[in-house]
Amino acid sequence: MVSVHVHPGNKIEVLLDSDNAFTIDNCVEISRYLESNLDRESEDFALEVSSPGLTQPLKVKRQYVKNIQRDVIVKTKDGKKVEGTLAGVLGESISLKMRVRETIEGTKKKAWVEKELILPFEEINETKIVISFK
Questions:
Q1: How far is it, in rounded angstroms, from Cα 81 to Cα 125?
Q2: How many domains is the chain partitioned into structurally?
Q3: Residue 19, C-beta contacts closer than 8 angstroms, at least 6 positions apart
Q4: In terms of domains, do 125 and 65 share one?
Q5: Are the C-beta atoms of 116 and 97 separated by less than 8 Å?
Q6: Which tens digits make up the pLDDT trace of 9-32?
Q7: Are residues 42 and 97 both part of a single domain?
Q8: Which residue of 12, 13, 48, 56 pairs with 52 in a disulfide if CB–CB is 3.0 to 4.6 A?
Q9: How far apart are CA 28 and CA 26, in angstroms?
Q10: Per-residue pLDDT tens over the stretch 48-103
């Protein structure tokens, strides 16, 4: 499970993800299970069970592990945006590989350099996968 939200008007939204393929049949099965355990007689509700789309931010550590080697944009809690390739998950942090242009020491020329940035989960506000059609 990725998240559960109860919105005004008793709209219940459940987002599920899996390391394997997550099909619509899986969503239907879980929706029916949840609905059978809720009482419509006492309170009406709308139930939506789905998998997060590509535009949804990553929410749990397992999603980060699943998306290693994908390009991501990370928004930090201090408002910065960092773009790079998710290189790994290290305990309670992620590792991003980024290409940056830096001045070559002793010259005025700039060159592309690969850098690694370690970001603790506690400093991350949001991480989204970069969608590319290359």
A1: 10
A2: 2
A3: 62, 66
A4: yes
A5: yes
A6: 888 888 877 777 677 888 888 888
A7: no
A8: 56
A9: 5
A10: 887 776 778 888 898 899 889 999 999 999 999 999 999 999 999 999 999 988 88
> In degrees rounded to 5, what are phi and psi of residue 110?
-115, 150
Tell whether the torsion through CA atoms of 73, 76, 80 and 84 is positive or negative: negative
**92 occurs within a structural domain:** yes
Q: How far apart are CA 67 and CA 82, in angstroms?
A: 16
Reduced to 3 states, what is the DSSP secondary structure of residue 123? helix
pLDDT at 34 over 70: yes
The pTM for the full model equals: 0.69
Q: State the pLDDT at residue 77.
A: 95
Q: Which domain holds residue 21?
A: 3-50
